[in-house]
Write a structure and sequence with these properties.
two-stranded antiparallel ribbon; Rossmann fold; alpha/beta; five-stranded parallel β-sheet; globular; about 290 residues; 7 strands
């Protein structure tokens, strides 16, 4: 049985989609056709792969010639059970972790939650202020499949999440990339990732960015596409309906994120300060620039 031996486990909005796309194109790497199976984070109500047989089927087409087989599920890092479940599945698994300044990540994640219809408050400051209510099960949109994902202050504490990972996995099985590094020299970070996976360089020189901040042009149109997709499943139609994908693609636009109000930025800096210092300790790196005004 083909079994994944590496996992891009997060964090969301930290370059995981780009890295997964680059690795997918490598001739000696096989990535799951579903980019985010989210099978092992069983403490989340998220992901379309629910059974082990369905999960294993994601890797059935690997031809045995690949040096690395993997998948990318960005909520594994914040999950309290995913890493342990992965290690039971494959004790020798390697983990790729992608991080960024949480003060930038938190607003980008808010954008993503708006796009995914998990969030309905467009103003970030207002959404941030709702976190305590949401922890108590209030002010949660009906369309939000997993309320944990819109508790932004917890989801973006990357130091805590990395510390939990290191408590379970030897450091040699973990490769950490920061968004700062990825933006500065994507080719260098890509090559370092290939080295971690023991895969030769394929000579890639194109490092296009994937999954930029997006918004819907029309929410009713999006709901219509979702309804048609559910109808397709109910009717047992297994073939692709390319027109739905085309409509969905044309219904998207790049979203320009408004600047943070100065007071909100101060609140975020105070909230994440200790966690950033924890990351500095864990990685032996200086992230003081993340806390500058």
């Amino acid at each position: 049985m083909n079994k994944p031996n590496f996992f891009i486990i997060g964090a969301p909005k930290c370059g995981t989609t780009s890295m997964a796309a680059w690795l997918t194109a490598h001739p000696q790497i096989y990535m799951s056709p579903i980019k985010e199976p989210h099978y092992f984070n069983m403490d989340h109500k998220h992901g379309e792969i629910k059974t082990l047989s369905s999960y294993n089927a994601q890797f059935a087409d690997a031809n045995g010639q690949e040096k690395a087989i993997g998948e990318a599920s960005v909520w594994y890092l914040t999950s309290k059970v995913a890493v342990a479940n992965i290690l039971k599945f494959n004790p020798d698994a390697k983990f790729i972790v992608m991080l960024r300044n949480p003060i930038e990540m938190v607003t980008s994640l808010h954008d993503q939650m708006l796009f995914s219809q998990y969030e309905h408050i467009e103003d970030f400051t207002q959404a941030w202020q709702l976190q305590e209510e949401r922890k108590n099960g209030k002010a949660i949109p009906a369309s939000c499949v997993e309320p944990q994902f819109i508790i932004y202050g917890d989801r973006c504490k990357l130091g805590e999440q990395l510390q939990r990972l290191y408590a379970q996995v030897p450091h040699k099985q973990v490769h950490v990339i920061t968004m700062d590094q990825l933006k500065k020299d994507p080719q260098k970070e890509y090559k370092k990732t290939l080295e971690f996976l023991n895969v030769p360089d394929d000579g890639r020189i194109d490092f296009a960015v994937h999954n930029l901040a997006k918004a819907r042009r029309s929410l009713p149109l999006r709901k219509a596409v979702e309804w048609l997709g559910r109808l397709k499943i109910a009717l047992g139609i297994t073939g692709g309906l390319g027109i739905l994908n085309a409509i969905e693609k044309n219904n998207q636009k790049t979203r320009k994120r408004p600047p943070l109000p100065p007071q909100t930025k101060l609140i975020l800096q105070d909230h994440f300060r200790d966690d950033i210092h924890l990351l500095e300790k864990l990685l032996e790196r200086d992230f003081s620039h993340w806390l500058k005004p």
